[in-house]
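Field reference: "sequence" (input) and "structure" (output). Example, DUF4177 domain-containing protein:
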Amino acid sequence: MTAYEYNVIPAPNRGEKDKDAKTPSDRYAVAFTAELNRMAQDGWEYIRADVLPSEERTGLTGRSTVYHNLLVFRRLIASSGKSGKTVQHATPQPEYPVAASPVRQPEPVPDAPAAAAPQSADRTVAAEQKPAVSVPQGNATPPAPRSAPADN
């Protein structure tokens, strides 16, 4: 059985100055990278960042909810077996392994429908001679005349 120990630390609040970091996002990335590398030197593996609520006192009697940005790390614990020897564990696997599904072949491109296909010049001329939809001309009601609003 694989056993881990976890360590949770606050995420950096501010960025660090660096000659290549020009924007605030770049400076924050430098601070975050430095923190990850510092923990990795001690054998900690970065798992994720979490934002968790905490209820804290405000004033004498008030309480408010504050959200903290936390970084979660883990590392293997060397456990001793029944024989008293230290058991070495394999390297940790991802928490959510990718399913091993076979690679699908690309699907063929379907043929364009006849309505969307390019028309030849002789078909276009025939379409112009016949209207596609017949509109009755005799019983059409003309629109009402527009008049300016009356001033009172």
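The chain is about 20% helix and 25% strand.
The CA atoms of residues 110 and 117 lie 12 Å apart.
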